[in-house]
Structure formats: C-alpha cells, structure tokens
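lol ok so funny story. i was supposed to be doing the assay writeup but got distracted and ended up predicting the structure for this chain instead. priorities right. anyway since i did it might as well share w the group, maybe its usefull for someone
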Amino acid sequence: MPLPSQPTDARRPRAMVIDGAWRALGPDLESLSGPGGAPLTRTVKLIVLPLIVRPALHPDLAVDFLAPEPAARLDALIRESGARLVATAQWFTLLKRTRRALGVVAGHPQDLYFQRCFELAAEHGEPAAGAGALARAVVEEVADADGGRTVDALKRYLADAAQQARLEGELAVAWEGRLSVPAADTAAAVALAGEVLEACGGAEGPRNSPSYMSMVEAGHGELLGRALWAHASGVWGRGDLPAHLGLTKRQLPPRPEVGRGASTATLPAPLDRTLFERLFVVLQSSARREELPTVPELVGREVGRSCAPLGLYDESLRVAVLLGGQLAVGLDPLGIGEPAPGHTAAHRAVNSRWRREASVLRARRMTVSPHPDPDGGVLDALAQDLRTPWTAYMRRLWVRLHGRDVRDAPLVDAASAWAVLDGVARSVMMDHRARVRSALRTLSASAAPTAVPEAAVVAEAAESRSA
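and the output, tada:
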C-alpha cells in the first residue's frame, strides 16, 4: 500500500519511511515480512537498522521523525539494498528448511539466522549450487554455539528425580527465609517514581533524574516487592487496582516450584511461574545464548532470584518495576478515564502516541457507543485490553527486566530505565495493533464481496498509519 501523501516540509515517522521503502521492493520478501507486507519487527531490529541504516554512522537517521532530506536518504538506502534483501529472504527460507530437517528446535529462527542470512547474501548472493551444504553448516554452527544452553538441556537437567527433590528443598528454604515485614508505606517511593517519569517524558527528551538513583540507593524496588508479600493495598493511589498489577493471579505471590514443562501459549503470570517456565522464556528469546551462564548455573541462581522481592536480584531492575507500575496505572489509550494520580509527562507522551492508533480510535467508538459490537464481539474483546492495559504492560516489562537480571545488565540511570519503559509501551502497542489487524482481516474475508465493511476501512487506516 503506498504511503499517504505528506507535505513536502513535514517530518515523517522513520518507521513509516522504512515501511514505504520496504513495500516498494516488491513481493519477494515474504519470509522477512508480516501478513500485511510490512517488514517484521525483528527484520527492522536485526537487519534494516543495524546493517542497512546503521544509525551510529548516520546519527541524523537515528531519530523517530525525519525531515524530508534524511527521509529521502533512508528510503534510498533501503531501495539500494533490495537485491541483497531478496537474497536474504531466500537464505532464510533455506536455513529454516534445513533446521527442520536436522530436528533443531531451540531458539527463535529469526533471532538466530536473520543477520547470518544477510551476511550470506552479501557474500554469495542468492542461494545457488552448494547452498544446501552451506546452510547445513550454518545451522549446525549456530546450534553448537549455545554450549548446551537450550530448552532441551534444561528439561534433561530438571528431569532427574533427585535433582527435583534437591531444588524443591532449596526453594522451600529460600522462601521461608524471606524477611517478614508488615505492609509498608510506599507513598514516598511512588512520589519519587512520579518525579522520574516527569523528567523522562519531557518534550525535550529523557533527562536523568537524581530521584532515580535515590530510589535505587534507598531500596524502593525491594520495598515494593516486600509490600506484595505483605498484601499491601492502595500502593498506586487507586483502590481498584492490586499492588501487583497482574504480575500474579493470586492474592499473594506463591512459592515457586521447579516444574518440568512450559508452553508459550499457556505461560502463567510472571510471579506464578516455575523455575522451568522462567528459564524457558530466557532460553527461547535469547539471540546470543553463548553469553548466558550454563544451565546448572542458571537454575542455581534462579532458585534465589525467584524467592527475591519481585523475583529479581538487581535493585535498579526492581526500581524499574516500580516506575513501570506508576506508568502503567496511568495508561489510558481510550482517553475516557480521569487522569490518574501522579499523572506525568511520561504518561502524556505514551497515551498520546497510543491514542493516534486507528485501532484505538475504533475501540474508543465501541466503548462510548450504546450499541453492541456489530462484529460479534471479536473486536470488543480486543477493546477490553485497552480498558485494562496495565496487565499486558507489566507482564512484558517484567519479562524484559528478568532477562536483564539473568545477564547481569542493570539500568544505570534514569535514561536507560526510560528506554526500557518506553520500549515496552511501544511493544505492547504494536502487539495490540497486530492482533487487531489479524481480526480485521478475518472479518473482512468473511464479509460479502459486495459490501465494504467498516472493518476493512479501519484495517486500511491502520495500515496507512503503520509505525
């Protein structure tokens, strides 16, 4: 779909420029594209930005909105790489086929192979004679590079009955060893969180706030974690929200268990997960598993981490949970609620971005309309997610912070913390957009061909606003 017309002097979202240039390359990029033809998020993250755009060398292309001249150069960079991208798509298809033939299941193929395929395309062009043997060598090399840090290795390690019993005993001791404290007054911590978010969300860009380091040094993240154990209430200034904001389905976080299986489709809330489920996500999502500790080390550290406040060791990451909670309770994509207590510049920035989404505009109309959803409730279920956005936000934030904790990657200042908080907000927004588009495509396909259902109109609007 062509880009909507833009005034010649208008700044354009960088993501929109990438989308337009990508679609202009033609239909041979299916394995690197989503169902609507736009580049996959991982395609942009792993190929387009680091290998084609290279923002470190072109800082004027590193911003979210581009003036006409940088936008034209970005468009040209992507179009000039068209042949290499087509070859990359062909290599990726070949490597996936080879991976299946070899029975390799660990890791996400896009994370593992996207950049390798771009390298293969640069060196060899499109797959030709001998490509099968080369693809096999690459798949085997990547599989060996993880040093046994795989879900299968984790499953084997935890399958031993004696190992299970030992770990269950260690979990019981660690859980009972938690300091019992009464429900703490978290008002001061939440107030400082508001100051940090005000500094980070300003129009001039994120600023480091001394309040952030004050929170880390005072252990305010740990304070929140202990408040959850003590069943605190009213933490966020709203009596209708639990202090854990959906990080557990229980009234109180339960003692972790060892576990022996996991499924991405049925993962429980973060603080309800077993050791296996917690490490399953880490191993599945890691592009560079060779940088992780070995499986026995991972399991040993996870015993203590799972019984620590908020299920995290590092205090800067716990503070990020507190900041994320303060941001999450003020998320209002539909723009129909009263401003939450402690509303900050960060809230205004994130909510404003979200409210411009075509799918959100549709959901808002459904919310305020006295008539039921004409599409049989499919979109109403997705609109419900926008009425309670904090659960999806906190779940994704915790997973991201847990991955950093496993890798010993703290958040050293407010700016780095804001990069994670804002990145999670964007990720949740894009995921919701993708699910709405999928529902709209299904509804449009089932509609009468002579009709032009509102779903199709909204889908077209959503495509044109792709970011």
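The chain has two domains: 1-145, 178-255+307-442. The mean pLDDT is 82.
back to the writeup now i swear
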